Each structure stands twice: as structure tokens, then as C-alpha cells.
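Researcher: We're teaching a course module on how sequence relates to structure. For the next exercise, students receive a sequence and then see the predicted structure as C-alpha cells, so they can try to spot secondary structure elements on their own. Here is the exercise chain.
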Amino acid sequence: MSYARKQLARGEEVVYDGGQHWFAVVVRVWWAIVLAILSLAVLLWAITWDASLAKNIIEILAFVGLAAGFVKMGTAVWAWRNTEFLVTTRRLVRAEGILNKVVMDANLEKVNDAHLTQGVLGRILGYGDLDVMTAADEMGGVEDFPMLADPIDFKVAMLNQKELMDRPDLAPPPYQRQEAPTMRPAEPLPPRAGSDQVTMVDQAQAEPAPAAPATLAATPEASARSTTPADDAGATLERLAALRDRGLITPEEYDAKKRELLERI
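Model: And here is the predicted structure for the students to work with:
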């Protein structure tokens, strides 16, 4: 987490995360770049000389100038990467520094005006200077954002957030969670082989249903067509075999019921 984000209060969120443009590094260290180029050129030129005291001195000076230029450029890049400009839901935050950190902020409620300066080169490369006027300016407050990258987007984000603080009715409505659809109850699964439900189904299918009371006297033909215990046992065995084939009862249960029915005949 960056140093500026560690300064956020409870419930405070970052609306826009900005920083300085890369051209700010060039403006700060242009002399170091020129020094490094000249030192490198002198060092390459001195290599062609014959060995002498003047050559050694020139080479040492060129090497020192080259090292000083690279150190300055590296420090400037490091400082540029540690510069942060934030727009949060409550304030503006500016943090900078490598080892010694400096953090300045201003409440959005106290922002009175903003002055953006963007020259021709700034419009081409995409940077500008943003000066924010607040009530703290009268007491020496500093809320300037020099060489800000994408300054228009930063300024628009700042003004939009300030307007949301002044007029909360412009904020989008909170997200409303939709009600969960009604779930249909799961259908009961068929009983597994060897369970008590299979035994109950087996007994219900093995016992013949009670005969309906006869309203008329049975004729000799009807008596001849009446089923015998052997026929009932055969029908029950067929039903049990079907249950066994479907896996609802085990072969052992089928054999036990089969012996029981044959003993009844």
C-alpha cells in the first residue's frame, strides 16, 4: 500500500489516483542529463590519448561527472515515483518524499476555486499546473499540484466529488439486492436396496389386496376363473423379480421372499 493511502480515514475511499507527469523528471534533471552526456563523450575521447598525467586526470573528472549525473537522475526518478496526488471522498491528498515524507491535504468542503495552467507543450504531452484555492491559503497553506499528469481528469474528479458532498441527492441510489427465487422442494429419491423402505414396499406388494364385496352371486364360470394361491405367488414373484432387476431389492432378499412364498403354497 502506498504512503498516501495509509493516511485514509475510516470509510474514506480514493476517487482518483494521479501523479506527476514524466516530463517533470526531465525538467528537474536536464543539467544532469547534459553532464552525463558530456562526461561520457570526454571519457571516450580520452581513451584515444597516450598515457599521461593529464589523461588520467581528465578520465577521473569525466567518470565523476558521469556518476554524478546518473545518481541525480536516479534520485529524481525515485522521488517522482513516490509523488502521489489523490482525490478521495473527503479531501485532496498530496504526498511526496523518498525517506522524509511530506503529506499535505485539504478538505473538499473548503475548496473555493481551482486554477489550471496548461501551456502548449503541456497540452501536447498531457500535463499542467493545478492550483487549488481553499480557506487555508490565507494562512499559508499549500495545495498546489505542479506538472500534474492528466490535469483535466483530476480537476473534474475533484469538482464532481465536491458537488456530491454539497448535494448528496445527486449520488446514485444504493444497490438493492433482488429477492432470491422460490426454490421447489426436491422430489424424494427411490429407496435404496437393503433399506427398510424396500421391505415395506415388498410386503405391500406381496400381500394381495382385499377383494371387493360381491354384489351378485358368483356363477360357475366365474368360480372356475378365480385365481389360486399358486397364481398369486407367481404374480408376486414376477413383481419381486422386477424390483430385483431395477436394483430396488437385493438378490438375497428376492431369494428369501421366494422361499417364503413357496412354503405358503
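Model: If you want an answer key for the exercise: Residues 212-225 have pLDDT under 50 and may be disordered. Strands lie at 14-18, 84-88, 91-96, 102-107, 111-117, 127-134, 144-149.
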